[in-house]
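Hi C.,

You asked whether I'd gotten around to modeling the 168-residue construct. I have! Everything is below, sequence then structure, no commentary in between.
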Amino acid sequence: MIRQEDLTREAAMSQDLRAGELAERDLLGMRRRALAALWARNATATPPDGRGAGTVLAGTGPRTAGPLARVVRRLAWQGKVFDRRRGDLRNMLTPFGVLAVRARVGPGRSVLDGRDCVVLDYSGTSKVAWWVRDEIREVAPGLWLGVALVRGHPVAWFALRFPAALVR
């Protein structure tokens, strides 16, 4: 659960970033508490559609987060491909962009703050990630902030960038 005092303190760090001006590099520069504050200021219930380029957000600031994100994208996770009509997604994995690890996608309430978000539920679709639930919210046009939860506990933050025409 996100504590109000953390949000107030960290909101000042990201307050200068207007929603329309946010980019992945801004999120890479944020620490975990600032990501949580940005998360708490947004709510989204309509899932995206199409291919979202993924960026792992270490929440450690730009010095280490940038290099880590580049290594993860090249070697392991490149993002997610959503099919809004079917209500599911597949992750793009390996340097070859193999589509695997399916999740059901739909509106729901966030475990973190109880507000609207898009839930990516792996429990009924994946044998390797059945204990994982991702939650995402749009924080700028085409830019989504996500949190990966393992058994209800946040373990990682990530961003997804969609071409603006595919988001609506």
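If it helps when you're writing up: The CA atoms of residues 43 and 150 lie 21 Å apart.

Thanks,
B.
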